[in-house]
Amino acid sequence: MPLIALTGGIASGxxxxxxxxxxxxxxxxxxxxxxxxxxxxxSPVLAAIAAEFGEDVIRVDxxxxxxxxxxRVFADQDRxxxxxxxxHPAVREESARRFxxxxxxxPAAVVxxxxxxxxxxxxxxxxxxxVVADAPADMRAQRMIALRGMTEEDARARLASQVPDDVRRAxxxxxxxxxxxxxxxxxxxxxxxxRVRAR
Length: 199
Fold this sequence. Notes:
By secondary structure, this protein is an alpha/beta fold.
């Protein structure tokens, strides 16, 4: 079972690559969805977050108030590290469970872990390939403004809060340049799929 890590900064085109790999038959394990799942109402992770950051980060319906929590950790590295210390172990455990489930269901499966924080949290895991979606920061900022309705200031702040692009490229086995057309991104993704299937 090839285990591929797919990463990239915000608005880098990672979702386009993941969707194309899924069309080819890859099993996509989405780290962001796992984070939402392990922080669900009544979960031990959510209880630990409330204990660390205050009960007011829990909405009246019992779900995490992601905006309230984000406001507390976004610009404070110490608080962000405290949050990561709660969330990352649970995500690691659940992702491993999903990798195993995919292998049990199909020993020949190609599993792609769609993981924004690979460099920050998972770079040393035993990946068969690390794939990085890459586009210039200015282009990604424009995507955030056009597609996500963010202000330029907010887009730039999000970019500045992430690992620098050269750090991501340095760990890559494959870089997919998403600065061109969608068709060009798809063609590079198809070539990646052929490489993986030929192994």
